[in-house]
Amino acid sequence: MKCEEVAERLTDLMEGDLSESEEAAALEHLATCASCEVVLAETRSVAELAQQHGRTDLSDEDKDRMLSSVVEALADPQTGPSESA
Fold first, then answer.
1. Rounded Cα distance, 9 and 29, in Å
2. Whole-model pTM?
3. I need a labelling partner for 25 at 20 to 30 A (CA). Which of 4, 10, 35, 63 fits?
4. What integer pLDDT is reported at residue 69 of this predicted model?
5. How far apart are CA 61 and CA 41, in angstroms?
6. What is the pLDDT of residues 47-66, one digit of tens each?
7. How far apart are alpha carbons 39 and 65 in whole angstroms?
8. Nearest of 11, 23, 1 to residue 67 by alpha carbon
């Protein structure tokens, strides 16, 4: 699995919604990719904060913008997401 695929399936991974083979591929990638491991840790932190402070509904546009930002950061971990994201 590549970084972009892991980013797109991160929530499914955290919620146990991947098939056994998809989960194995994602975990194998995470074991060798420091950037994705950081994204996973940050995503878990955000999820924990959301649980503590309640749910906030986001528009589809905001969800897409956030996912694009994560994918961009994974594609270029040196520079991270752009300021416009």
1. 12
2. 0.59
3. 63
4. 84
5. 24
6. 888 778 777 778 999 988 98
7. 16
8. 11
**Other Cβ atoms closer than 10 A to 4:** 15
Residue 15, φ and ψ in degrees, nearest 5: -90, 0
- Tokens of residue 80, six digits: 């991270």
Q: Which is more confidently placed, 29 or 69?
A: 29
Domains of the chain, residue spans: 3-75
Residue 72 to residue 77: CA distance in whole angstroms: 8
DSSP calls for the chain: --HHHHHHHHHHHHTT-S-HHHHHHHHHHHHH-HHHHHHHHHHHHHHHHHHHH------HHHHHHHHHHHHHHHH-TTT-S-TT-
Tell which residue, 46, 78, 82, has the closest CA to residue 65.
Answer: 82
User: Shortest CA distance to 30 belongs to which of 52, 14, 45?
Assistant: 14
